[in-house]
Write a structure and sequence with these properties.
This is STAS domain-containing protein. With 99 residues, the chain is an alpha/beta fold. The chain has one domain: 2-Layer Sandwich (Transcription Regulator spoIIAA). The chain is built from three helices and four strands, in the order ββαβαβα. The chain has a four-stranded mixed beta sheet, with helices on both faces. Strand 2, helix 1 and strand 3 form a beta-alpha-beta unit. Helix 1 packs parallel to helix 2.
Length: 99
Amino acid sequence: MNLQIVQNARKFEVIGDFTLNNTTHVKEHFNNLLDHYDEVVMSLKKVQKIDHKGIQVLKDIYSKANRRNKILFVFGRDNNIIRKAFEKNKVSYIFKENY
């Protein structure tokens, strides 16, 4: 499935397959948001597939937010695909849902 990033109010929903073919789009989009906003809200609730490259991009975005003292909220713990991938790759620390 193709990947879309849809803005819903102040939240950006990642929808579809967050895999190698789509990671550049996600990285560029969220890096641009972090260049312009102090807080960015990302939802992974509608991601249907994520691979190692998708996880790496999330780690990169998370690191950039921290380096720049920006706040990155990441929703998606309820998505079993995301939760299992985060647990397997030991990146559950990326979740920040207290928006």
